[in-house]
Design goal:
Helices cover 1% and strands 44% of the residues.
Length: 349
């Protein structure tokens, strides 16, 4: 790889996909590798000269739908290509089509979201804060006015029978109607200034939100599908800058300089915290019923979900002690991990 990775990896069948930059840092490069051998299959290059904080590499994780893959760059490009051969079906630039009110120092970060045949993006233009594109053609289906985007991704969920798109803009949490784009509700947090990087998490009929200035919060929804104005549970100590919480067996796990374990069924009460040199401001957490697989600071850690808080196994993936910001991809027993300049495939057993 030419540059440190920020965007996540996606794997589908024997195809591994990710966004990159060329050696001169002038072009976005969207790469497809053979997942079994690591050999290049195809790539797409597009000129994109800029100077963003944390580099110019794409932040988004590619989205695969059958024989189509959707890429998004940090500079506003959204591109749909055939998974089989990389031929481009359509592309458009959000920055040009829906100019944001102000430049984004970290660029466009959200991964594309596919729901009901629509590709949901959030360019953050005053006239088009959230936009639905036809997933087949790239044409605009609807657009909703608003403010600049946050730096996390949107999700789709149904609450009280209301199918909606949920996520952050720069200043608030919101829900949008999937079919029309109408904004259904808004929650403005008590403390301003969140960068809104962690992704919202759906827990049955509840919504979990965690940000660096307002902590972890659980919300319920009213009968009409609107969110309750105030959270019914919160924890002010877990304040992740970038890590998205993972929930299993009624327990919430999240890394932010510690590994936190909170009780979802008891008001997000802290059960324990685990300190380790591997835990910084970001980690990717994979969960199963009985264990956590945590990718943090160049290491892979195994932690049980019950019993004594401890790291039961660990291995160093990369020689240098560099943080890993790109989310890994898991396929069967193989874990695909992206570091500062290397891409590795690990057999987990």
């Amino acid at each position: 790889m030419a540059h440190p990775g920020l965007g996540g990896l996606a794997v589908s069948g024997n195809r591994l996909l990710f966004g990159d930059r060329d050696l001169d840092d002038f072009h976005d490069v969207f790469r497809c590798l053979d997942a079994d051998s690591g050999e290049p299959v195809w790539e797409i290059q597009r000129l994109a000269i800029a100077a963003l904080d944390y580099g110019n590499s794409p932040r988004a994780t590619p989205l695969v739908d059958k024989d189509r893959v959707y890429f998004a760059s940090a500079h506003g490009l959204v591109l749909c290509a055939k998974l089989s051969d990389g031929s481009v079906i359509w592309e458009r630039n959000l920055h040009d089509d829906f100019p944001p009110a102000a430049e984004l120092p970290w660029g466009f970060c959200a991964s594309p979201l596919l729901v009901a045949g629509k590709l949901i993006v959030n360019p953050g233009s005053p006239t088009a804060s959230v936009v639905a594109l036809d997933a087949v053609t790239g044409e605009v289906v609807w657009k909703c006015p608003g403010v600049a985007p946050g730096y996390g991704s949107l999700i789709a969920a149904a609450f009280q029978g209301q199918q909606q798109i949920i996520g952050h803009d720069a200043v608030s949490l919101g829900g949008w109607d999937v079919e029309t784009g109408r904004r259904l509700w808004t929650v403005t947090p008590e403390s301003s200034g969140d960068f809104n990087v962690p992704t919202p998490v759906v827990l049955k009929d509840q919504l979990l939100i965690a940000t660096e200035n307002n902590g972890a919060r659980l919300f319920r929804f009213e009968a009409d599908g609107r969110i309750a104005a105030e959270p019914f549970a919160s924890n002010s100590r877990l304040k992740p800058d970038m890590s998205t919480p993972a929930v299993v067996g009624g327990k919430l796990f999240c890394v932010n300089r510690f590994l936190y374990c909170l009780d979802v069924d008891d008001g997000l009460k802290e059960l324990w915290r685990l300190r380790d040199a591997a835990f910084g401001d970001y980690a990717a957490v994979f969960v199963s019923e009985d264990r956590l697989l945590i990718l943090a600071n160049g290491e892979l850690l195994l932690v049980p979900t019950s019993g004594k808080k401890q790291i039961t196994s660990r291995c160093r993936i990369f020689d240098d002690n560099h943080p890993i910001y790109s989310h890994a991809a898991l396929r069967g027993k193989r874990l695909f991990v992206r570091g500062e300049g290397l891409l590795k495939c690990l057999n987990l057993w």
